[in-house]
Specification:
By secondary structure, the chain is an alpha+beta fold. The chain has 11 helices and 10 strands.
Length: 280
């Protein structure tokens, strides 16, 4: 029986969510391994214990975008439901998420008082589909007018578009100098524009390798994803996903994979916001 399940985002929440995920992993699965990601995650754990680098993960937590591969250690069976937020969504929904990278925060701290009722409803819901519905309704309520979440989301999209489409030779992005723009971008995402582009390209590369083009040779994949060559792609994959691409692909084909997040991600086609990133 699969230990993780992909749930497509409802149409009205697609500007905010990549997808929803249900995880019910047996005790035999001792770890979950995530690559560097430009998306973030909202997770409610219903059973089991999870730690990251020896630190206990809160039962209801937000995990920010990350600039490196991350491993989560399991203790016993782990049952959780969660949402994968689009890169521009987290800081738009939760102002205290602004500027966070490689961070893990309790949802109660991130979302404040409205989260208490949502978490209670998740835990008392009849099944996992109902739990996902509760989380989706929480996002709807958070983003609904009179909040300015939508305006903040559009501003974040403008930052992303400017980061990847502006001509660096001019030094101008959104009417700002390159240094001013980079400071604004780092303040929003906790990483520089180039670093964001590199990680976004990695995420796209992993998706194509796992889901879209299984027969494509690595050299062709590298060129298609904007790398200088196959070795350039290989270095980025090892550095940001923790292992060579071939090993990652092979591991995701096994029934009980610590790389199940890649299995789930393979079901979510990347949604480009801008021009393809250029080689760096």
């Amino acid at each position: 029986m699969p230990h993780s399940r992909f749930v497509p985002a409802p149409p009205d929440l697609q500007p905010w969510l990549e997808a929803a995920v249900v995880v019910d992993s047996p005790a035999e699965l001792a770890q979950s391994q995530f690559p560097a990601m430009v998306s973030s995650m909202l997770v409610v754990r219903l059973a089991g214990q999870v730690t990251c680098q020896g630190v206990a993960v809160p039962k209801a937590a937000w995990m920010s975008a990350s600039t490196c591969a991350t491993a989560y250690a399991h203790q016993g069976r782990v049952h959780a439901v969660g949402l994968v937020l689009r890169p521009e969504a987290a800081a738009a929904l939760f102002t205290s998420a602004r500027g966070a990278a490689n961070a893990m925060r309790p949802m109660a701290d991130l979302a404040g008082a409205p989260w208490a009722a949502a978490e209670r409803n998740v835990r008392t819901a009849a099944d996992d589909d109902a739990r996902i519905d509760v989380l989706c309704q929480f996002i709807r309520a958070t983003a609904a007018p009179p909040s300015d979440c939508e305006a903040r989301r559009r501003h974040a999209l403008a930052l992303l578009t400017a980061a990847c489409s502006a001509d660096e030779g001019t030094g101008l992005h959104m009417g700002l100098s390159q240094r001013q723009f980079e400071r604004r971008f780092v303040a929003h995402w906790g990483m520089a524009p180039k670093q964001f582009q590199v990680i976004a390209r990695l995420n796209s590369t992993l998706w194509h390798a796992l889901a879209n083009e299984p027969a494509t040779h690595n050299a062709e994949l590298a060129v298609a994803q904007g790398y200088y060559d196959q070795s350039h792609m290989g270095r980025d994959v090892r550095r940001l996903a923790g292992q060579p691409l071939q090993i990652l692909v092979q591991d995701t084909r096994t029934p009980l994979s610590t790389h199940w997040p890649l299995q789930m991600g393979a079901q979510t086609p990347p949604k480009p916001l801008h021009q393809p990133p250029q080689p760096t």
